[in-house]
Amino acid sequence: MPRAGWLGLLVVALAVAPLALPPFFLQLLTEIAIVGLFATAFNLLMGFGGMVSFGHAAYFALGAYAPALLVKRAGLPMLLALPAAPLAAAAGALLFGFFIVRLSHTYFAMLSLAFAQIVFTVIFKWKALTGGDDGLLDVWPPAALKSPAAYYYFTLAVVGLSLLALRLIVDSPFGYALRSVRENPRRARFIGIDVRRHQLVAFVISGAFSGVAGGLFAFYNGSVFPDFAYFTKSFEPLVVALLGGVQSFYGPLAGAFGFKILEWLVSRQWPVYWPLFLGSIVIVVIVVLPYGFVGLAGGRPWRTRPAAKA
């Protein structure tokens, strides 16, 4: 079956899911969609831009706290507050990215982590505004979106539009220029591509859509906490993208589905040992399935490895 056919079947299945699934599984699918968007936004940097960020939780947290503060402190309704999520995250990504993209490889990753820890510290210490370690509680969607089915459809709509926008960006001339920067920055610079500008724009776009995921998660969770900006949260999209396959646009979505289903299954029986199982699965996928879950669907042999760069 062609890809369009599979996509159509998936859309139909997601649309009728509330008719067949209990509320718990609708909430699980909602969380999978949010994590999938977060990982896809992150993969714009890693998979298509060749930049590994260890601090992307900062933009997820900014996207969560911005609308939550508008709802709690300013009394705005959710639908008016939610657009602040990508705006706040994009502003933070622009400010931090201006310095981060001046470095590369390990230094890029570590500086991104350092800025994320600054965001975490500000959120944790500024108790008068953010609530500190108590967080912001009772951040719920309006009555029309409070049921699991209603918020599920709302999340699908926002995530679907965001993924469409990201896909158009990846397939645009900017996306192809970003790939060339990933493959060989020096050659890209020689043919007239402003490498640093493209990296900064990609960083801001990735941060903005990470903020959308954070805003959706804030109202899904009903509360926000400083842990949203902690460094362990930054490794979630990294692990999800690796599980699904960083070479494919749809890899992070497949990784999010596998990640959350595995977490649900394992944590039911062995909640304490869930990190052990996760680490083992990631090792197996990296060693045995270098193209991730989508490599199996794409018919790539499991022994095939990505071509090594010279």
Written account of the structure:
There is one protein chain. The protein is mainly α and 310 residues long. It has a domain at 21-230. The protein has 15 helices and no strands. It has helices at residues 3-20, 23-49, 57-73, 78-81, 84-100, 105-125, 127-130, 148-170, 173-183, 185-190, 195-221, 231-244, 251-269, 274-288, 292-297. It is globular and about 55 Å long. It starts with a helix and ends in a 13-residue tail after the last helix. The model is unreliable at 301-310 (pLDDT under 50).
Low-pLDDT segments:
301-310
Instruction: Report, as a whole number of angstroms, the end-to-end distance.
Output: 37 Å
- Mean pLDDT equals 90
Main sheet, how many strands, which sense, barrel?
none
Envelope shape: globular
- Topology pattern, helix = H, strand = E: HHHHHHHHHHHHHHH
Class inferred from helices and paired strands = mainly alpha
| Helix proportion range | over 70%
Round the Cα radius of gyration to an integer and report it: 19 Å
What is the strand and helix layout of this fold?
Elements: H1 3-20, H2 23-49, H3 57-73, H4 78-81, H5 84-100, H6 105-125, H7 127-130, H8 148-170, H9 173-183, H10 185-190, H11 195-221, H12 231-244, H13 251-269, H14 274-288, H15 292-297
Helix pairs in contact: 2-8, 2-11, 2-12, 2-13, 3-5, 3-6, 3-11, 5-6, 5-11, 8-11, 9-11, 12-13
